[in-house]
Amino acid sequence: MLNIRQHQHHIHITYHSSHDLSGLQAMSKMLATNKTLKYLNLWRCNIGSEGGQLILHGINRNDTILFFEFGNNGLSQTHQIKISERLDQNKTKNQEEEELRQHQEQKQADEDTIIKAEIDQKTKEEDLAKWREDQQIMRSSKRRQIKEEELKKKREEEEAERLREEERLKAEADALAAKEAKKAKKKKK
Predict the structure, then answer these.
(1) Distance of CA 29 to the CA centre of its chain
(2) Dist. CA 46–CA 49, nearest whole Å
(3) Contact 43, 14 (CB under 8 A)
(4) DSSP label of 64
(5) Dist. CA 50–CA 25, nearest whole Å
C-alpha cells in the first residue's frame, strides 16, 4: 500500500510491480486530493496501460502538480498526451496565480506605502501642532514671568519710595520736634 503525506512537494518512486495496482490506486486518490505536490517522478516504474489510466484519473483532478516524470512505463501515447496536457494546464494556472499573487502583493505594497505616507503626514502635523502648542505655552509662561518680574520690581520701587517718604517725614517730624523742643527750652529759660 502506498502512503503519501498530504504536504509532500516532491515524490520519487523508482520501481512498481505491475501485478499489484493497489499502490497506483492509492496514488490516484492522493493525486486527486493533494494540493501541495508539485513534482512526481515515476520513471521506470512499470506502470503499464491500466496503471496509466489510474494515474491519469488522479492527475485530471489535480491542479497543482507541475512536473511529472513518467517515461519508460509502458503508458499509451493517449495517456502520455493527456497527462502532458493536464500538466500544461496546471503550469498555466500556476503562472496566472503567481502573476495574480505578485500583482496583489504589489497592490498591497502600494496601499501600504500610501497608508504609511498618510500616517507619517498625520504624525508630522500632530508633532507640528504639539510643537506650536508647546511654543505658545513657553511664550505665555515667559510673558507671565516678565510681568511678574516687572510687578515685583514696581512693588519694590514703590516700597523703597514709601520707605524714603517715611524717613523724610520722620526726619521732618524729628527736625520739627527738635525745633519745638529747642523753642520750648528757650522759653523755659
Answers:
(1) 42
(2) 9
(3) yes
(4) S
(5) 10
Residue 93 lies in a domain: no
Residue type, 86: R
b/e sequence 135-170, b meaning 16+ C-beta within 10 Å: eeeeeeeeeeeeeeeeeeeeeeeeeeeeeeeeeeee
Question: Which among 97, 35, 106 is positioned nearest to 65, based on CA atoms?
Answer: 35
Extended beta strands in the chain, E state: 10-12, 39-41, 67-69
Q: Residue 45: what pLDDT?
A: 87
Residues 35-88 have pLDDT tens digits of: 999 999 998 888 899 999 999 999 999 999 999 998 899 899 999 999 999 999
Q: Is residue 50 part of a domain?
A: yes
In a domain, 92, yes or no: no
With cell 488522479, the residue in question is 58
Q: Is 99 exposed, middle or buried (0-12, 13-18, 19+ CB in 10 A)?
A: exposed
| Pairwise CA distance, residues 132 & 134, whole Å | 5
Pairing of strands 10-12, 39-41: parallel
Amino acid at 134: D
Question: How far apart, in whole angstroms, are the C-alpha atoms of residue 55 and residue 30?
Answer: 10
Residue 65 lies in domain: 10-75
User: Distance between CA atoms of 25 and 3, rounded to whole angstroms?
Assistant: 11
- Number of independent structural domains in the chain: 1
